[in-house]
Structure formats: C-alpha cells, structure tokens
C-alpha cells in the first residue's frame, strides 16, 4: 500500500468517525487527504470500495495492536476500546453493510490471524481455541451492544470475562 493510499484511508477514517459515514463525500475525503477527488477514485473506484478498504485498513491497524502477555491485558484492551472507540465501532458496523465475498474472506482471514495471536494465552485451558473464541465473541458482542445501549459498568464485564477465563481450566 502506498503512502498516498494510506493517507486517503486515514483521512476517510477520520471523517467517517467524526460524522455519519453516509454524510461524508468523496470530495470531503479528498480535501481532508489533500488530494484530488479523481485521485481518490483512481485508487478506490467508488465510495463503497473506499468504505471497504477503510474497514480492512482499520481492522489491520487493530490487529497490529494485538500483543498481550496475559488474558487480563487482552480484556483490559477491549474494555479500553469500548470506552474510547465507540465511533470507530459505529463506522465498522456501518461498513459491514457493504459486504462482498471478498470482504467476507478478508475479514475471516484477519479474524483467524487475531485468534492465532491470542491463542497462546489460552494454552492452559482444556479447550484453548474454543475458550479464546468464546471470550472474543463475548467481548465483541459487548462492544457492538454498547453502541446501541448503555451496558452499565464495564468493570463488571471485565471481572466476568476474567472469571470465565479462570473457569476454562477446570
């Protein structure tokens, strides 16, 4: 990916998380990136492709943050994510409306990569992969639910997630 492409994707993400993505035009993104609209179209073809590319770029950036020494660090990362990145979650949910088989394949590949990265944390569990998947699903679900509802104390969910992990060894 070229620096220019990354610049456009970062500008798009900045705008998509500042206001509803459907209100963001390609001209807005081009202006934010300091490039012409025709250059944005050259790289991405249309707005849907740019939204998909921005989603994948965002997921890749999140994957790059996944480096934990313990399940507690993993849970704390997601709790912090829920507190600080609500607009990012909103954008990601919006972007998932533009699904294609390619997007599903790419997201699945990244999901498997994220699972592989955290799997060593679950080696003491009777069913490591399943436990990692279940804990990830719980945290992802809470993240999505928190966009639509007040889920209350995140600390309580943190404690529940850690208790779930501790019970996996039984």
Explain how this protein is built.
With 170 residues, this protein is mainly alpha-helical. 74% of the residues lie in helices and 0% in strands. The protein has nine helices and no strands. The longest helix is centred in the C-terminal third of the chain and has 21 residues, at 128-148. It is elongated, with a radius of gyration of 18 Å. The mean pLDDT is 94.
Output the radius of gyration. 18 Å
The residue ranges in which pLDDT falls below 50 over 5 or more consecutive positions are none
Number of strands: 0
How confident overall, as mean pLDDT?
A: 94
Overall geometry comes to elongated
Total helical segments: 9
Major sheet characteristics: none
How much strand? under 5%
Q: Helical content, roughly? A: over 70%
What's the order of the H and E elements? HHHHHHHHH
Structural class by secondary-structure content: mainly alpha
How far the N terminus sits from the C terminus, by CA atoms, comes to 46 Å
